[in-house]
Amino acid sequence: MIIIGIDTAIRKTGYGVIDMRTNGSFRILDCGLIRNAASLPHSECLRRLAGGIRELVSSFKPEAASIESAFVSRNVKTAMILSLARGAVITALAECGVPAFEYSPKSAKRAATGLGEADKSQVASIMANLGGLDVSQIPDDATDALALAFCHGNLALRSAGGLVRPPVPI
Amino acid sequence: MIIIGIDTAIRKTGYGVIDMRTNGSFRILDCGLIRNAASLPHSECLRRLAGGIRELVSSFKPEAASIESAFVSRNVKTAMILSLARGAVITALAECGVPAFEYSPKSAKRAATGLGEADKSQVASIMANLGGLDVSQIPDDATDALALAFCHGNLALRSAGGLVRPPVPI
User: Fold this and answer.
1) Cβ atoms within 10 Å of A17's Cβ, excluding its own
2) Burial of residue A63, with CB atoms counted within 10 A of its CB: 0-12 exposed, 13-18 middle, 19 or more buried
3) Tens digit of pLDDT for each residue in A50-88?
């Protein structure tokens, strides 16, 4: 089961594509960043973001996408700009027919490391280890995206085994 | 100059397409609503919204889009859902190469009626009159979209005449 994890932000979106095996192990197919220079207007950031997601979907044909749930920031303006970017990502996924599932950063980290409060380097080293990569090959901001993909893969396997209810796409 | 005005919302997005003449009058080419049933998940609402905007752009080839600026609601959750929908709309416009300009509802109403606090029926009757339509032909929720389109057209004309600075796309 191929899953794309996406850690969305207007300027720097991390992604990670994994091939989840039925025994719970996985292989990392790709991970990286979609960057938008600070000088770009929002409309261009959203266009590049949606285009990047479409390219990844067309290359890897994921069965599902796992994205970070919207957190309610105390800074409303920040939350609204993040939501614009999430809108671009969810639209691109929906247009490609890829169901999107939301998980909190805490759930993703807990699934990946057993700890909801793990830091980026802990997540990276565990993901690299499980995914059969050298940790130096994982860009810093792609670790959370890999953890999101793994979190969904894990839940999908457990629900297929009847252990938990199947997750509902957004 | 053909302009599309869009009053975005996740469940009911109003649109209005006008052909603005250099003398400041205009013709209404189309106006209506993109509706999403309450039962649809967000991802499907965004897909339908982006698809609807693309269809309108391909039919009318607008030179510019005029959208409502994001208001900072006291309800953060509402603001975030509206921003998702705005993300879908701005992405679709950017992918079609249509520059988008933002105006507050107040600016749009003031441009249309001279009053920032005008109600929907006042906006509708003035827009119908200026745009050469019977007011009964304008759906209720499309009036704000028509006012947004007119607001941008007005400003574009004034800036072309050197009276004000040209508006900056988002």
Assistant:
1) 26
2) middle
3) 999 999 999 999 999 999 998 777 788 888 999 999 999
pLDDT in tens, B40-73: 999 999 999 999 999 999 999 999 999 999 877 7
Spatial separation of the C-alpha atoms in residues A31 and A97, rounded to whole Å: 21
User: Whole-angstrom Cα distance, residue A97 to residue A57?
Assistant: 10
B87/A92 touch (CB, cutoff 8 Å), yes or no: no
> Which amino acid does the sequence have at B91?
T
Closest CA to B146 of B9, B12, B45, B33: B33
B72–A77: do the CB atoms touch at under 8 Å? yes
Please answer yes or no on whether A91 and B170 come within 8 Å at the CB atom.
no
Q: What is the 3-state secondary structure (H, E, C) of chain A?
A: CEEEEEECCCCEEEEEEEEECCCCCEEEEEEEEEECCCCCCHHHHHHHHHHHHHHHHHHHCCCEEEEECCCCCCCHHHHHHHHHHHHHHHHHHHHCCCCEEEECHHHHHHHHHCCCCCCHHHHHHHHHHHHCCCHHHCCHHHHHHHHHHHHHHHHHHHHHCCCCCCCCCC
* pTM as predicted: 0.94
Classified as helix, coil or strand, B47 is helix
Question: Distance from CA of residue B148 to its chain's centroid?
Answer: 5
List the domain boundaries for chain B.
Answer: 2-160
Instruction: Report the amino acid identity of residue B163.
Output: L
Contact A13, A7 (CB under 8 A): yes
How much is the pLDDT for B154? 93
| Burial of residue B68, with CB atoms counted within 10 A of its CB: 0-12 exposed, 13-18 middle, 19 or more buried | buried
Q: Cβ neighbours of residue A95 under 8 Å, at least 6 residues apart?
A: A54, B47, B50, B51
Q: What CA–CA distance (Å, rounded) separates A88 from B88? A: 5
User: Which one from A19, A55, A68, A102 is the annotated catalytic residue?
Assistant: A68
Question: Is B65 part of the contact surface with chain A (CB cutoff 8 Å)?
Answer: no
CB contact, 8 Å: A87 with chain B?
yes
Q: Domain A2-160 is classified in which CATH homologous superfamily?
A: Ribonuclease H-like superfamily/Ribonuclease H (3.30.420.10)
